[in-house]
């Protein structure tokens, strides 16, 4: 999606350690108009696919998923929590994932009442690097018996292989910006 790629080139910052900082518009300060265009594009890409619910992970995926849901007949958005809370009651699906950006493992939890066997789910997230978070969400989806129709990703760091691994397993991955290379020294970003 050229609009997103242009924003990344203009406002994104490449940091050492393969970190792409896009907090000015994607995951700290949110450009809602951009999110709406992203949702519109995913709806075009997944046209004709049944989507009963959208699943994401806190925190950065929530805003994007909520705005995108408007383009999927206002499908409910379920988000996996990264910590146990007194607000989480009843039975839960849980797993542990490793965060590339936070450099640590943490639990991921979804209340069982929010994912029902046979539902068709679209997983939305802001980034796809190694695929750890998405594999954790897949594990939860498998436990719930839902049908994962695909992944809608804002920015895929294609050189890190997470998207390719999901595609090799037969999953549909639609990334709006797929970074081929980026260089912290020069600040350059190249897209596929």
Automatic annotation (TrEMBL):
It comes from the Bacteria. Keywords: Cytoplasm, Glycosyltransferase, Purine salvage, Transferase. 5-phospho-alpha-D-ribose 1-diphosphate binds at residues 129-133. One of its GO terms (biological process) is xanthine metabolic process. Pfam families: Pribosyltran. It is an enzyme of class 2 (transferase). It catalyses: XMP + diphosphate = xanthine + 5-phospho-alpha-D-ribose 1-diphosphate. It is found in: Cytoplasm. InterPro entries: PRTase-like (IPR029057), PRTase_dom (IPR000836), Pur/Pyrimidine_PRTase (IPR050118), Xanthine_PRibTrfase (IPR010079). Residues 51-157 form the Phosphoribosyltransferase domain. Its EC number is 2.4.2.22. CDD domains: PRTases_typeI (cd06223). Its main location: cytoplasm. Pathway: Purine metabolism; XMP biosynthesis via salvage pathway; XMP from xanthine: step 1/1. Xanthine binds at residues 20, 27, 157. GO terms for molecular function: xanthine phosphoribosyltransferase activity. GO terms for cellular component: cytoplasm. The keyword Iron does not apply. Homodimer. Belongs to the purine/pyrimidine phosphoribosyltransferase family. Xpt subfamily. Converts the preformed base xanthine, a product of nucleic acid breakdown, to xanthosine 5'-monophosphate (XMP), so it can be reused for RNA or DNA synthesis. This is Xanthine phosphoribosyltransferase. The lineage of its organism: Bacteria, Bacillati, Actinomycetota, Actinomycetes, Bifidobacteriales. The gene is xpt.
């Amino acid at each position: 999606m050229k609009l997103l790629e242009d924003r990344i080139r203009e406002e994104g910052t490449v940091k050492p350690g393969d970190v792409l900082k896009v907090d000015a518009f994607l995951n700290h300060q949110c450009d809602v108009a951009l999110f709406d265009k992203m949702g519109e594009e995913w709806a075009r890409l997944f046209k004709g696919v049944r989507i009963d619910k959208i699943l994401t992970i806190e925190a950065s995926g929530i805003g994007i998923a909520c705005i995108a849901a408007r383009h999927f007949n206002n499908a409910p958005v379920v988000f996996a929590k990264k910590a146990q809370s007194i607000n989480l009651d009843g039975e839960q699906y849980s797993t542990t994932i490793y965060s590339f950006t936070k450099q640590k493992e943490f639990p991921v939890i979804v209340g069982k009442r929010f994912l029902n066997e046979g539902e068709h789910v679209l997983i939305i997230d802001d980034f796809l690097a190694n695929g750890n978070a998405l594999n954790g969400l897949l594990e939860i989806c498998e436990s719930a018996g839902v049908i994962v129709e695909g992944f809608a990703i804002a920015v895929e760091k294609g050189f890190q292989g997470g998207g390719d691994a999901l595609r090799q397993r037969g999953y549909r991955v639609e990334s709006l910006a797929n970074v081929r290379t980026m260089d912290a020294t020069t600040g350059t970003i190249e897209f596929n």
